[in-house]
Amino acid sequence: MKVFFDEIDVLTESRTELVDISSYVEDHVRKSNIKNGFCLAYALHSTVAIIVNEHETGLIQDIINKVEKDFPKGMGWLHDRIDDNADAHLASTFIGPSRIFPIKNGRLVKGKWQNIFVLELDGPRTRKIVLETLGE
Amino acid sequence: MKVFFDEIDVLTESRTELVDISSYVEDHVRKSNIKNGFCLAYALHSTVAIIVNEHETGLIQDIINKVEKDFPKGMGWLHDRIDDNADAHLASTFIGPSRIFPIKNGRLVKGKWQNIFVLELDGPRTRKIVLETLGE
Amino acid sequence: MKVFFDEIDVLTESRTELVDISSYVEDHVRKSNIKNGFCLAYALHSTVAIIVNEHETGLIQDIINKVEKDFPKGMGWLHDRIDDNADAHLASTFIGPSRIFPIKNGRLVKGKWQNIFVLELDGPRTRKIVLETLGE
């Protein structure tokens, strides 16, 4: 059994933003030399989520619009008395801080229309994403 | 350490639909001969999700109704200019393409009222689900 | 390769409630003696979810309010004809019954503002949460 770790820094430029990290995750799996196992992409933050979907410009904007509509800023959230970002915490809570993938024959398994994104919910910031591959 | 893979084809008949794949996942775990580990059910699609809940006819319809209400079709989504299914991509993005389970004493661990479903969001289609069990 | 299991009982006191189980999960990882791997927290219930976010009193109430607003009780759900808790099943379906974490150098990896909670959706009840750490 082998375990291999990476940590990537993602710099975001807007409050709500998607950053495609697919190539970083694929490089990580290649460097791990692990043939079969699991790969976890895990965000060390409570105002970020990891999501999987198609990299298409219109859809990326649809995702941003949908998040901002479903988790609106400044609605009198109680957490806003401490830090003005309750909406970002709520979206991260429901969507989740990670996604996990099969590794087969040394490659990350995902569909043709599946890319891996960091969903920034309270940028701009520098975000740390842990990548871990475990297998043989 | 052992790793065992299966891929199942799921044929759906409606645009939004739940297909119970619990017995396929349990057969996969049995065939793996793995006693303790993890089992991942992963959909290779960006308009599908994997979910876990009770197999009850009314609830299945409630889930379909709730998805269609929260992710409505044809709301002027930008992705619809490319392909008329942005609502399906959005639901898959937020719910997620996979669920993972403990394996203990050779059995899939889940609650009495937990079944595993493919949530089709843009059917009818043939869908590919990767099953992977890793352990000892 | 090693696999280590725990099961914790969580007693809830309200219909919707967050219970912070971070210290239980950290104790479990310590007891496992596993240095590098994955840790899964998995709820054996279809009216519970596992979530990760900041332990701040205002935010905890915001999460409860948001769940109750987005998954309202008594809206004529079909499952309510069987058991009066369709709203709880729907929230669990979309949010998910588990979260998974990296284990590195014998410690659970999570961000400074990330705690692990059981999200009770149909309490008060006693809930069983499986903790599993796999690694070396």
Describe the fold and architecture.
Chain A is an alpha+beta fold and 136 residues long. Chain A has one domain (2-135): Sandwich (Jelly Rolls). Helix content of chain A is 26%, strand content 38%. Chain A is built from 3 helices and 8 strands. The first copy, chain A, has a 5-stranded antiparallel beta sheet with strand order 1-8-3-5-6, with helices on one face. In chain A, β5 and β6 form a beta hairpin. The longest helix of chain A is centred in the middle third of the chain and has 14 residues, at 57-70. Chain A starts with a strand and ends with a strand. Chains in contact: A-B, A-C, B-C. Chains A and B meet through β4, α2 and β5 of A and β3, α3 and β8 of B.
